[in-house]
Structure formats: structure tokens, C-alpha cells
Design goal:
The structure holds two protein chains of two kinds. By secondary structure, chain A is mainly beta. Chain A is about 0% helix and about 55% strand. Classes of the chains: A mainly beta, B mainly beta. Chains A and B meet through strand 5 and strand 6 of A and strand 5, strand 9 and strand 10 of B.
Chain lengths: ~110, ~120
């Protein structure tokens, strides 16, 4: 079965600084990979997804992620964070069997 | 475009009372539907999923049940709530058309507090 690890529980970053959130997955074949964002008290919003092709994926809100098969990673990046990026971020992996496996999430705090 | 609704948005219930949370999807047919729970400070736990009317798969043994009486309606229920049922309940749908069929889209959630 597939699984996801998000090593960082909490990250604090200054507004305007760059952000990178780590995600490592475990799956034998090529996975489907996702990043979701959740603001407090809200549902999850899809930021971006990787299915195949170009390993650098662009998403909404200025986010991008890079799939690295050799490292089993799908890290999320943003060059310059805004205060509105403070939220919880979830990485997920799918294997085409109806279900997604989610990481435990990384909480991002943005300081002025 | 597709939209997903959940209600109620917030619910406070006493221990031992029944529960019914509803999720409906618009703008798509025959979606896969999912119920997740987020307990405080924890990630998402898949509770149930459904691939069609009347077809329910349970992921974890618990005090809850799910039903799908119509194609785009998914209901989460309990006969007697426990304190441990408190949490944030999320419904999601997954489309079956197109290449990116593994993508799940989430509703706004229901905050349940059991006292």
C-alpha cells in the first residue's frame, strides 16, 4: 500500500521569503501525487497534482512542486510567501484504487 | 462546474444522541464519494467511500455508518454519539471522466462537537 511522509509538522517563514514543504512517498509504481491546502475551519483545496509528464508542476496561488522519482519526493515550493499562505498543507498519493493516502500535514505560519 | 455541499456547517450534540450529516454533489454523475474525519491536531482519516448507490466500503471499525440513497448524496450517521466522535468531517468526490480520475475534491466540512 502507498504511504506519505511529511517530515515537518510546523514551519515558520517570514512574509516575502521562500517556502519549501517536503513530501516523501512510498509506492512501487508511478504514483499520482497531490498537494492540498486547508485554511482554518475550511475544507481542502487542491493546489496542484502530478500524473505524468513534466516533473515540475505549476499550481494555483503561485505554488509549484517537483516530482523526483529517485528521491521518492514531491516537494512544494513558493518563491515569495504572502500572509494569506498561512494554512495547513497536505501531500497525498494515489494508486488508482479509489483512495488517496494523506500525509499528516505541515502547518505554515507566516510572520510579518 | 461541479460543487459539493455539506450541512450542517457546525453541530453540537450530547453524548448518546443520533447524528446525520449530509453531503451532496452537483454537476457530475456517478462520482465516487468519501467521508473523512480530522480529529484535533491530526491528519485525515478515511472513514467510508462509495463507488455507487447503495455501495459503501468502511475503512475503520467505529461508531458511525454511511449510506448513499441517491447518486449524488452521501450521508454519515450514528445511532449514539461518543465523545471520541468529535472532529471535523469532510466529504469529498472523485470524478470518473477524463485522465485525472484520482483527483478528490472536498466540501467545506462539518465541525462536530460532542459534549
Amino acid at each position: 500500500a502507498q504511504s506519505v511522509t511529511q517530515p515537518d509538522i510546523h514551519i515558520t517563514v517570514s512574509e516575502g521569503a521562500s517556502l519549501e514543504l517536503r513530501c516523501n512517498y512510498s509506492y512501487g509504481a508511478t504514483p499520482y501525487l497531490f498537494w492540498y491546502v486547508q485554511s482554518p475551519g475550511q475544507g481542502l483545496q487542491l493546489l496542484l497534482k502530478y500524473f505524468s509528464g513534466d516533473t515540475l508542476v505549476q499550481g494555483i496561488k503561485g505554488f509549484e512542486a517537483e516530482f523526483k522519482r529517485s528521491q521518492s519526493s514531491f516537494n512544494l515550493r513558493k518563491p515569495s510567501v504572502h500572509w494569506s499562505d498561512a494554512a495547513e498543507y497536505f501531500c497525498a498519493v494515489g494508486a488508482g484504487d479509489y483512495k488517496l493516502s494523506f500525509g499528516a500535514g505541515t502547518t505554515v505560519t507566516v510572520r510579518a | 462546474s461541479q460543487t459539493i455541499h455539506q450541512w450542517p456547517a457546525t453541530l453540537v450534540q450530547p453524548v448518546g444522541s443520533p447524528l446525520s450529516l449530509e453531503c451532496t454533489v452537483e454537476g457530475t454523475s456517478n462520482p465516487n464519494l468519501y467521508w473523512y474525519r480530522q480529529a484535533a491536531g491530526r491528519g485525515l482519516q478515511l472513514l467510508f467511500y462509495s463507488v455507487g448507490i447503495g455501495q459503501i466500503s468502511s475503512e475503520v471499525p467505529q461508531n458511525l455508518s454511511a449510506s448513499r440513497p441517491q447518486d449524488r448524496q452521501f450521508i454519515l450517521s450514528s445511532k449514539k454519539l461518543l465523545l471520541s466522535d468529535s472532529g471535523f468531517y469532510l466529504c469529498a468526490w472523485r470524478g470518473l471522466a477524463g485522465g485525472s480520475t484520482d483527483t478528490q475534491y472536498f466540501g467545506p466540512g462539518t465541525r462536530l462537537t460532542v459534549l
